[in-house]
Amino acid sequence: MGLFFLVYIFVGATLAGSFMVAALTMGMTTMQPVLWSSLAGFVVAIPVAWVVARKIRENV
């Protein structure tokens, strides 16, 4: 479980930042779309971090 949280910290920040940059690139420069896009990045990161942590544990 600790590995999942460690991976989630990095994947969540990366995806949230990527989603935020995507929203800003599309011209959504107000606060609400930026917050929703970063929240979506953190939500999408949950299954991604789970799969990555599982794959790491299988190879160790």
Description:
This is CTP synthetase. Keywords: Membrane, Transmembrane, Transmembrane helix. The chain crosses the membrane at residues 33-53. Helix content is 88%, strand content 0%. With 60 residues, the protein is mostly helical. The chain has one domain (2-59). The longest helix is centred in the last third of the chain and has 29 residues, at 31-59. The protein starts with a helix and ends with a helix. The mean pLDDT is 95.
Compact summary:
This protein is mainly α and 60 residues long. It has helices at 2-25, 31-59.
Query: Which percent band covers the strand fraction?
Result: under 5%
Query: How many strands?
Result: 0
- List the helices and strands in order: HH
The overall average pLDDT, rounded, is 95
Report low-confidence residues grouped into runs of 5 or more: none
First-last Cα distance: 15 Å
Largest sheet: none
How many domains is the backbone divided into? 1
Question: Roughly how many Å is the radius of gyration?
Answer: 13 Å
Portion of residues in helices? Answer: over 70%
Please tell me what the overall shape is: elongated
Alpha plus pi helix count: 2
Oligomer: single chain
Would you tell me the structural class of the helices and strands? Answer: mainly alpha
Transmembrane segments: 33-53
Protein name: CTP synthetase
Keywords: Membrane, Transmembrane, Transmembrane helix
Organism: Sinisalibacter aestuarii
